[in-house]
Amino acid sequence: MENKPKRKLKLLPPYFKFIGLGLIVSGFALGPIIKLTHLQLQQPGKELLGLSGKVLIILGLYLIAASRDRNEYEGLMDLRLKSFISAFFFGVFWVTIKPLGELLISGSDNHISGAYIIGEVLLIYLSSYYWDKLARKRKRAAQINSSENNNDITIR
Q1: Is the pLDDT at 148 greater than 70, yes or no?
Q2: Which burial class, exposed, middle or buried, applies to 136 when counting CB atoms under 10 A from its CB (0-12, 13-18, 19+)?
Q3: What is the pLDDT of the chain when averaged over all its residues?
Q4: Are both 34 and 76 inside the same structural domain?
């Protein structure tokens, strides 16, 4: 059997994280800016601004999730996959359990919007990825510190 080379995941350049962060900040700042300028908007205008804010936040989260790190290595691809799987299962669990819980508790069946689900799945993905990445970094630093403290010479 012939070993096939692993396919590299095509990710966006690292500077897209800053673009995504800017989109998230502008999406969250849209509401207070409208309040502070005292704009009187009709209902369709308010809905359009609310939708625009959601789109900016989701697009920003996506750009952060789809951009690679400066020092990308194969272990990070495993972390990305693990984080994506956990975020996907959270989304499936949330879509099935939340309406059931609301129906049992409040007696009403509220609709969950797609933007809400996508936003939560992206947030879970990013938080899981960066949490695992930080834990891996701390574990590696602890191993280096323990090997320096032992002063043992190992022959390989």
Answers
A1: yes
A2: middle
A3: 84
A4: no
Domain co-membership, 81 together with 51: no
In a domain, residue 1? The reply is no
Q: What SS3 class is residue 12?
A: strand
Question: How confident is the model over 12-54, as pLDDT tens digits?
Answer: 999 999 999 999 999 999 878 777 776 777 767 677 887 888 8
Give the structural domain span for 92.
71-150
Please list the alpha-helical segments (H only) found in 108-156. Answer: 114-150
Beta carbons within 8 Å of 102's beta carbon, 6+ residues apart: 108, 109, 110
Q: What is the sign, positive or negative, of the torsion defined by CA atoms of 22, 27, 28, 31?
A: positive
Among candidate residues 68, 85, 114, the one where a domain is terminated? 68
Burial class (CB in 10 A: 0-12, 13-18, 19+), 118: middle
How many residues would you count in the chain?
156
Q: Identify whether the C-beta of residue 147 lies closer than 8 Å to the C-beta of residue 97.
A: no
